[in-house]
Amino acid sequence: MTDNHLKIAVIPGDGIGKEVVPEGLRVLEAVAKRHNIDMRFDEFDFASCDYFQKHGQMMPDDWKEQVGGHDALFFGAVGWPETVPDHVSLWGSLIQFRREFDQYISLRPARLMPGVPCPLVGREPGDIDMMIVRENTEGEYSSIGGKMFAGTPREVVLQETVMSRIGVDRVLKYAFELAATRPRAKLTSATKSNGISITMPYWDERVAEMAKDYPGISVDKYHIDILTAHFVLNPDKFDVVVASNLFGDILSDLGPACAGTIGIAPSGNINPEREFPSLFEPVHGSAPDIASQGIANPIGQIWAGAMMLDHLGHAEAASDIMRAIERILSEPAMRTRDLGGQADTQMCGKSVADALD
Ligand code: ATP
Ligand code: MG
């Protein structure tokens, strides 16, 4: 589904979001020009703590009308705990997008790039190149449960895990389809069916059932405990990894951490059918400790732009950005301080835009 006319809602948010988003746009504009993509950007000031301070809420009542007609949301970071508690800013913005736009996939690449120091000893670029697919709407993060005998010694709390066939199958289908586009065509499922005796065996069952439709994909499964160990010890084993909401939450922090700095990792909250806009953002937050200094690494935001183009059907433009990122990361002088370089945010963004070919 490739569309040459794209309308992108740009939401810089808070802190370094406001510094790295312009660099993401700089690169998107440059790549759009080269590929003759007519990309329009509309910027919004809501989903930020500044907006909250003026209006007493994170977003206007009609936010859905304002951004719902766009092809995607290009998001910076939200959160400024000095003025608004994190749970208020998060629930008032990102969580609303995720729910209302049915972004049921959370997608995070973990790829070791040249020039990025790897915390795992002896690993080279090429050794880590995986996509973590997390179920983003149900599973362990249901709000079903409660407290009984509150305040007494017999107090009991419980919280249910919810897995629906539709919910499980749609994330698995996305993961299988993604694996089918990748050279290794490999899918790993995260489970814990040896300890969680109802929901996780169901997850395994659905994986086995769907695997029948994808004979070209090699499928394996690991229990989450040993899987986290393998992420650290044998990250080269993995290609696409699919997981429930909780396990995916853990793996999608662990994966990018194994591949180096937080400053370069991107993330997509995706509605694959494009019935609603998907949201693309860097993994990092608003980083109050380095905000307003112009030193944040913009690569995570720029990479998020590449993911967005890929989602919107412009795979070649997306690969161009990825090649430019690799080129810039290989040049010590172009790296930002978190990677041991001297470049500031704008220099780094500009050098990626200039490195497009
Ligand atoms: P979140 O709000 O998403 O949970 P956080 O606020 O706990 O995240 P971040 O904002 O991601 O954390 O920052 C964590 C650390 O990483 C900080 O010390 C920050 O300065 C650093 N950091 C984050 N993003 C970048 C970046 N793009 N460039 C350089 N350093 C960064
Ligand atoms: Mg934060």
Automatic annotation (TrEMBL):
Keywords: Manganese, Metal-binding, NAD, Oxidoreductase. Signal peptide: none annotated. InterPro entries: ICDH/IPMDH (IPR050501), IsoCit/isopropylmalate_DH_CS (IPR019818), IsoPropMal-DH-like_dom (IPR024084), TTC_DH (IPR011829). Its EC number is 1.1.1.83, 1.1.1.93, 4.1.1.73. The keyword Membrane does not apply. Residues 7-352 form the Isopropylmalate dehydrogenase-like domain. It catalyses: (2R,3R)-tartrate + NAD(+) = 2-hydroxy-3-oxosuccinate + NADH + H(+); (2R,3R)-tartrate + H(+) = (R)-glycerate + CO2; (R)-malate + NAD(+) = pyruvate + CO2 + NADH; tartrate + NAD(+) = 2-hydroxy-3-oxosuccinate + NADH + H(+). Pfam families: Iso_dh. Pathway: Carbohydrate acid metabolism; tartrate degradation; 2-hydroxy-3-oxosuccinate from L-tartrate: step 1/1; Carbohydrate acid metabolism; tartrate degradation; D-glycerate from L-tartrate: step 1/1; Carbohydrate acid metabolism; tartrate degradation; 2-hydroxy-3-oxosuccinate from meso-tartrate: step 1/1. One of its GO terms (molecular function) is tartrate decarboxylase activity. PANTHER family: D-MALATE DEHYDROGENASE [DECARBOXYLATING]. Belongs to the isocitrate and isopropylmalate dehydrogenases family. Has multiple catalytic activities. Apart from catalyzing the oxidation of (+)-tartrate to oxaloglycolate, also converts meso-tartrate to D-glycerate and catalyzes the oxidative decarboxylation of D-malate to pyruvate. This is D-malate dehydrogenase [decarboxylating]. It comes from Aliiruegeria lutimaris.
